[in-house]
Write a structure and sequence with these properties.
Organism: Coemansia nantahalensis
Keywords: Isomerase
Radius of gyration: 16 Å
Low-confidence stretches: none
CATH architecture of the largest domain: Up-down Bundle
EC number: 5.2.1.2
CATH class of the largest domain: Mainly Alpha
Number of helices: 9
Protein name: Glutathione S-transferase zeta-1
Shape: globular
CATH topology of the largest domain: Glutathione S-transferase Yfyf (Class Pi), Chain A, domain 2
Enzyme class: isomerase
Order of helices and strands: EHEHEEHHHHHHH
Oligomer: single chain
Number of strands: 4
Helix content: 40-55%
Length: 212
């Protein structure tokens, strides 16, 4: 495990941001290799050979090439358990995974770039806004039962790694976050941590200067 992991990422990808947060939080030094989704670099033959889905993130770590952000988070947790991102209590672990699923299965895939490109351009922002607003409403209700300082109790978990990038998407598409007081409070606390700050899209080497 001595060689530095390589993360294929895109500055605005919330899926890639989940992994950046986890790597930062666990103190894992990694090399970032940007893949420009807008320019179609993820469709290049060389990249597609490594990742048949042609998506980000993709990580090369411990001699393995792993795709899918949640699978990568689980791998990091199993191989690098220091600064855990899953609680010890089984019920709390299940709650973390439920929130992760609500974001990563039920919300983000319905508003990602691949889906938006199937819609007329003048409908894309409204579609993304509505999908995100509905998804965050579900998560907000879940947090009523589980939230402490963070999504599940008082320690950072995979749920926070997934929620905060989705909040970034919400801001991008003009979702009113005041409707989600638990989410807004957790975002404020998580965003004060270095691991989340370093993972923010504006801090990535491929973020265009005009968006800073």
């Amino acid at each position: 495990m001595s060689s530095k992991p390589v993360l294929y990422t895109y500055f605005r990808s919330s899926s890639a941001a989940r992994v950046r947060i986890a790597l930062n939080y666990k103190g894992i030094d990694f090399e970032s290799r940007p893949v420009n989704l807008v320019k179609g670099e993820h469709l290049a033959e060389e990249y597609a050979r490594q990742n048949p889905a042609s998506l980000v993130p993709l990580i090369v770590i411990d001699g393995h090439t792993l795709a899918q952000s949640v699978a990568i988070l689980e791998y990091l947790e199993e191989t690098r358990p220091d600064k855990p991102l899953l609680p010890r209590d089984p019920a709390a672990r299940a709650q973390v995974r439920a929130i992760v699923g609500a974001i990563c299965s039920d919300t983000q895939p319905l508003q990602n770039l691949r889906v938006l490109k199937t819609l007329p351009e003048d409908q894309r922002a409204t579609h993304a806004h509505n999908v995100i607003a509905r998804g965050l409403a579900v998560v907000e209700k879940m947090l009523e039962a589980s939230a402490g300082t963070f999504c599940v109790g008082d320690e950072v978990s995979m749920a926070d790694c997934c929620l905060i990038p989705q909040v970034m998407n919400a801001r991008r598409f003009g979702v009113d976050l005041s409707r989600y007081p638990h989410i807004q409070a957790i975002d404020g606390r998580a965003s004060a941590l270095e691991a989340f700050q370093k993972a923010h899209w504006t801090q990535q080497p491929d973020c265009p200067a005009e968006l800073l």
